[in-house]
Amino acid sequence: MSAISSVFSLYFPEYIWTFVEELDEHPWLFSALASILVGLSGILPLLIIPIDETASFKDGAGAATLRVLLSFAVGGLLGDVFLHLLPEAWENDLANRKEGEHVSLKCGLWCLFGMLVFIIVEKLFAATDEEEEESEKKKQNGDIKQIEIEEIEKLLEVERKQRGVKGPGLCNGTVTAEQLYDTCVFNNNTKGSGEGGCCSMAAGAGAGGAGGRCGAGAGAGGRWMGRCLLREARDKAAKATKTKQDKKDVAGYLNLMANSIDNFTHGLAVGGSFLVGFRVGVLTTFAILVHEIPHEVGDFAILLKSGFSRWEAAKAQLATASAGLIGAMTAVIFSGARNAIEAKTSWIVPFTAGGFLHIALVTVLPDLLREQDKKQSATHLASLLAGIALMAIMTHYF
């Protein structure tokens, strides 16, 4: 019995240790449960990050908080790369080194390759996004105008049916929805009398005067003269075009890809540790959780910066956790060929390190360097150092 077991045996009955030893016979079950537990840490930032659904990276009440969290994310990523991932990769290469082989060459090349892959992917998506944005700008005014005109026509149709009026347009057909739009929206001719007055004048002019049904419907608060019609049409047009405007930045997807690969390696570690023994598996799972919680906070901030909502970011984090489950099951299923698996997957850790370096130094840090306020810059630097320090503490003690 080990020294740790001897100490704990003073406080726990023998039958508990007997039960624990029986758990060693089911490594696949506890590997799966531990991987799911590690994956659930991805939703923890949803509970602790004080940023509302509408927070913007460029402005708004949550912008300052988001930048501080992004600084922490940069520090956490750098600490994870240089204090955890790369040392682990070098240690693995050193243990499996062949005589005359350069121990750090393979690891360094995979790290550089990881950075290169992420650069290429981001450039490809960035070029596509720029082309789509240019195309959208050319079509936006025409598309929105057409949508609003169509919505005005629908609303006018409802009004005509309610009032028993015949004709295709406003004021017995003398003013069409397009004329109403051109006068009151496209030309922005709403100064002085306001939008309602503008639409009233447009309708009155189309009717040959301000009398009759048109004049009667142009009173204050009247829906008949287009003020409410235009407002409702604009709201519906805005909803119709919202999905085109809410695009996600490619940096968020790159971060998710890197996290999926990282979670796969965690799954391999969890599965392998439970094959050794239940207590070893629990300790390994705890160590990974301690490392992952600050990492997940930084990842969450990066996803928010990339245009994800809080719930979208949480769901994306949970989706990447499935890679951890796959890794754990891989380790358990191929337990007889454990050394072969480690040899074939040794490239994953330095490759992931290269991806994290790209995200931290190329994707996130340049935005933070644009900060001109000295006080905010000092806060960002302190947050970055806190991220590095926390990862150093986690690596040292766990």
UniProtKB/TrEMBL annotation:
Its main location: membrane. One of its GO terms (cellular component) is membrane. One of its GO terms (molecular function) is zinc ion transmembrane transporter activity. Residues 121-150 form a coiled coil. Keywords: Coiled coil, Membrane, Transmembrane, Transmembrane helix. It is found in: Membrane. It comes from the Eukaryota. InterPro entries: ZIP. It is a multi-pass membrane protein. The chain crosses the membrane at residues 28-49, 61-83, 103-121, 318-341, 347-366, 378-397. Pfam families: Zip. Signal peptide: none annotated. GO terms for biological process: intracellular zinc ion homeostasis. Belongs to the ZIP transporter (TC 2.A.5) family. KE4/Catsup subfamily. This is Zinc transporter ZIP13 homolog. It comes from Diatraea saccharalis.
